[in-house]
Amino acid sequence: MAAMAISATAINANSKPIATIPLKRKMTIGESHRRGLPLVTKTFPKLQGDNDVIIHDFMGVQFYGPMSIGTPAQPFEVVYDTGSSNLWVPAYNCSTSCLLKPRYQPTQSSTYVANGEEYQIMYGSGPCSGVMEGDVATVQGIEVKNQQFAMVTNASGLGMAFAVAQWDGILGLAWPTIAVNNATPVFTNMIAQNPNMDQIFAFYLPNDASQNGELTFGGYDSSKFVGNLVSVPLTHEFYWMAALDSFVVGSTVYTTGAGAVIDSGTSTLTGPTAVVTAIANQINATQLIPGRYIVDCASIPTLPAFQITIGGTTWVLNGADYVINVENENIECMLGMMGMDIDTRFGELWIMGDVFMRKVYTVFDYKNKAVRFAYANQN
Fold first, then answer.
1. How far is CA 363 from CA 41, 139, 216, 328, 357, in A?
2. pLDDT tens across 46-66, in order?
């Protein structure tokens, strides 16, 4: 299906529910690397018959924002993650793996509904486990009643990186297909309980760590992008996945006919390990440790462009977009791309993480099973 242009005029009438959430992060990828912080692990949830994929991401770089659970509200800071589908927060009885995190107290909520079903996701270094419960989840004033979520009692699989991270849990925004325990995702319940709400949400991610990003439920912010939104149909409804027609660096074509997963919970681009190694060699990047590459800062203006064609439209990332200049000092520069072999029954998958989403404003269209793109307005 060909991509189609959509007017940049906001599509929400004032009478429709809409919520805008400020997103922040503690530091950039470069700052996390400079400080030598531990990696935080994330699981790419499996489909039946496929294996989980563990992503080792930089600590402190995830964009997170506020939400609450219960009545009265118990506040949490969560990563709004389009690469997973469950909501989880630390439980009142979480082990020391939750350290000083705020913890959900079911006895302090009048809207708590007991469930007790076991919940578990395995990470690279162990489990993230607990029990499923139900309560009101509130996102910027929009209440989602009887939302099933995981009350995590053991977060050891996330390592020390989670214990000292600024965020407390994860709010998954992917499709119900990959939800652990078949829990209905927050956004799916939100639009079901608010039938006049536009079934979209949109991300704006800033280049500067000192600035807030923006997540809008029920609409989008036309001041955050330039030109028209281009709509691209999803190829499957589990991740937010569209057709990656090609990934070209300069004049070299590295892949055709793959899948592109748009994932707000991953900080970099990822591609097959062998391909990322070849791209690194092409731009004369040096491997610092397995999967991490540094680039000569002086070469950034002359680096070849990444030409990423998704659903028939090409998005161009220049050197300054895909190379992270550590603290803007022009001393150490990192390639914002990691090798990750994600092979499923649907073929080769690439992740378009925050490096892509900072350049390209993204609208996630639940009703039309599509994503919409436009270049972000970073002015």
1. 26, 18, 9, 29, 10
2. 544 444 443 344 444 578 899
For residue 81, indicate whether it is catalytic: yes
Percent of the chain with pLDDT over 70: 83
**Residue labelled with tokens 């997963």:** 261
d(CA 197, CA 185): 16
CA 269 – CA 167 distance, rounded (Å): 22
The residue with tokens 């055709």 is 256
Q: Which of 245, 263, 321, 365 is labelled catalytic?
A: 263
Q: Is residue 263 annotated as a catalytic residue, yes or no?
A: yes
Tokens of 41: 């692990």
Residue pLDDT, tens place only, 220-249: 999 999 999 999 999 989 889 999 999 999
Nearest to 40 by CA among 128, 152, 149: 128
Residues contacting 66, CB < 8 A, separation 6+: 21, 22, 75, 76, 77, 78, 140
Q: Which of 57, 81, 321, 365 is catalytic?
A: 81
Query: ∠ CA 184-46-43 to the nearest 5 degrees?
Result: 90
How many C-beta atoms surround the C-beta of residue 75 within 10 A?
12
- Confidence (pLDDT) at 245: 97
For residues 170-193, one letter each, b for 16 or more C-beta atoms within 10 angstroms of the residue's C-beta and e for the rest, the string is bbbbbbeebbbeebbbbbbbbbee
